[in-house]
Design goal:
By secondary structure, this protein is an alpha+beta fold. It is built from 3 helices and 5 strands. It has a single domain, classed as HIT-like (HIT family, subunit A), CATH 3.30.428.10. Helix 2 crosses helix 3. The protein is globular.
């Protein structure tokens, strides 16, 4: 339902507080970018603002402005790091639109011609694979 309150115990809030480990590729005072643990393709990153909001609908416009700048920065690095033909950026608002974690976040997924996306549920990726992919993206961010 639209307008539902923010839940401070959602998984991304816990990650931001350091209660759940993550493979971070970028962070600053406003935004954290980390590897999705159930990637739809190698290099699937989530960009999460630190400020609490359920989704795009209740986010502060200044937070959105800062976040989308980092989405762009990470998308460029992901495309380079994975030699991708393109980058898919997705953002979902409320269950009817596919949102399952109720903290504003953007998906950045490298795409290659002819390659499909894996389902975004079920099997978690091996931590060593996530760590290696995170390092590739961090190196591209430094370039």
């Amino acid at each position: 339902m639209a307008g539902a309150p923010y839940d401070n115990n959602n998984v991304f809030a816990k990650i931001l507080r350091g209660e759940i480990p993550s493979h971070r590729v970028y962070e600053d005072d406003d935004v954290v970018a980390l590897m999705d643990v159930m990637p739809q393709a190698p290099g699937h990153v989530l960009i999460i603002p630190r400020a609490p909001s359920r989704n795009l609908m209740d986010a502060d416009p200044d937070v959105l402005s800062r976040t989308i700048q980092i989405v762009q920065k990470v998308a460029l690095a992901v495309q380079e790091a994975f030699d991708a033909d393109g980058v898919f950026v997705a953002q979902f608002n409320e269950p009817a639109a596919g949102q399952t974690v109720f903290h504003l976040h953007f998906h950045v997924i490298p795409r290659h011609e002819g390659a499909g996306l894996k389902p975004h549920s079920g099997q978690m990726e091996d931590g060593a694979v996530l760590a290696a992919n995170a390092e590739k993206i961090r190196l591209a961010l430094k370039a």
